[in-house]
Design brief:
This protein is of the alpha+beta class. Helix content is 20%, strand content 34%. The chain contains 3 helices and 10 strands. A 5-stranded mixed beta barrel has the order 2-5-6-9-7. The chain has a two-stranded antiparallel ribbon with strand order 3-4. The chain starts with a helix and ends with a helix. It is an enzyme of class 3 (hydrolase). Pfam families: Pyrophosphatase (PF00719). Keywords: Cytoplasm, Hydrolase, Magnesium, Metal-binding.
């Protein structure tokens, strides 16, 4: 398997088109994570079925969020994407998120070329309000059976705020690579 952090860049952040590697298909309760030490996907745990992911879940290569992992992405598609698929994605916002007291933001994206919906999603306000509610409910509650109150969606940010979060994560990656 290719090491995504070696073969892919974060993409054109200023242009709003980034590279995303999918870890978890939408609808899955398998917590699959990229293990950068061995450059492979690993099943970390199986979540309760009621907490299946409401969107695809992946990461941006060559980034580090404040929690020490690659920066997470919530990738909205009409069909689930398989683990290991990578694509160019359009940034449409950010979910500001805290997990066990650590910042663990999620960049919200859609495929950069989505001819099925005519590339209709350009900001969070273009997504169905019900989907935003479901995402927020999921992330506020997915650890409630094990560690109640340990996760919190703090706010939602626009494309400019998402790009700033990505750039900070690229700087962290570059600093640790030295």
């Amino acid at each position: 398997m290719a090491d995504f952090n070696k073969i892919l860049t974060p993409g054109d952040v200023d242009g709003g088109i980034i590279n995303v590697v999918n870890e978890i298909p939408a609808g899955s309760n398998h917590k699959i994570e990229w293990n950068r030490k061995v450059a492979a996907f690993q099943l970390d745990r199986v979540e309760p079925a009621i907490f299946a992911k409401p969107t695809n879940y992946g990461f941006i290569p060559q980034t580090l969020d404040e929690d020490g992992d690659e920066l997470d992405v919530l990738l909205v598609t009409e069909q689930p994407l398989a683990t290991g698929v990578f694509l160019e994605a359009k940034v449409i916002g950010v979910m500001k998120f805290v997990d066990d007291g650590e910042v663990d933001d999620k960049i919200v994206c859609v495929p950069a070329d989505d001819r099925n919906n005519g590339n209709a999603y350009n900001s969070l306000s273009d997504l169905p309000a019900q989907l935003i509610k479901q995402i927020e409910f999921h992330f506020n509650n997915y650890k409630a059976l094990k560690k109640p109150g340990s996760t919190q969606v703090q706010s939602w940010g626009d494309v400019a705020e998402a790009k700033a979060v990505i750039k900070e994560s690229i700087e962290r990656w570059n600093a640790q690579a030295k």
